[in-house]
Amino acid sequence: MNASGYAFLNSVGGEALSPSIGVARYGFKINGLSFIYRADISSEVIKDVRVCAIPTTQKWFNGMINVRGHLIPVFDLNRLFFNEKTDSGLFLVLDKGSKAVAFRIKKFPELIENIVQTDRHDKRFNDQLIPDFIRDYIVNYYASGSQPWLEFDKNAFLSSLTQRISIYS
C-alpha cells in the first residue's frame, strides 16, 4: 500500500497467467461466499476513505467515494446478501472510469492459484448459500482445492441493483 492509502493489485495491459485457466484471478470473500475476478481487470484496495452517503437509499448502498477525482458508488454486499453490516475501512475498487464500483471488504483480495473452471453442480458448491438475486448473474464457477469461487457479471448485477437503490422503489 502506498502513502496515499491505495494498494494496486494489478496493472491493466499485461495478463498474468495461471497454468490451469490462462488468466490469473483474484478473490475476495463476503461472509461465506467467495467471489473471483480476472487479474486483467483494473482493481485496487483503498483504506479509510470518506464515504458520502446518499439520502433515501438502501442500507447496502453506502454512497459515493472520491477516487482521484472520480465519484464511485460503494456497495456493502454483506449487508445486501446477509443483512449484516461490514465494519471495515477497506474498499475494493473494480474497473475504472464510469464502470468503476467499490465493495466494502474485510480482508485484502488474494491471488487464487491452481484454479480450475467447474460448474454449479460441483460438490464444492452449496447452491442454497448463494442468494437468489445474484444467482442469475453468476457467469462462471471455479474451484481451487476444496474452495469454491464464483465469478459474476458485475455490470449486469449492478444494473439490476440500480432499480432497487431507493428506499421508495
Low-confidence stretches: 1-20
Any idea of the CATH class? Mainly Beta
The number of domains is: 1
Question: Main β-sheet, in a few words?
Answer: 6 strands, mixed
Q: Could you give the count of β-strands? A: 14
CATH architecture: Beta Barrel
User: Helices and strands, in N-to-C order?
Assistant: EEEEEEEEHEEEEHEEH
> What's the alpha carbon Rg, rounded to whole Å?
16 Å
CATH level-3 fold name: OB fold (Dihydrolipoamide Acetyltransferase, E2P)
CATH homology-level superfamily: CheA-289, Domain 4
Strand content: 35-45%
Helical stretch count? 3
Average pLDDT, rounded to a whole number, is: 84
Overall spatial form: globular
Helical residue percent band: 10-25%
Distance between the first and last residues' Cα? 39 Å
Strand order of the largest sheet: 1-6-9-10-8-7
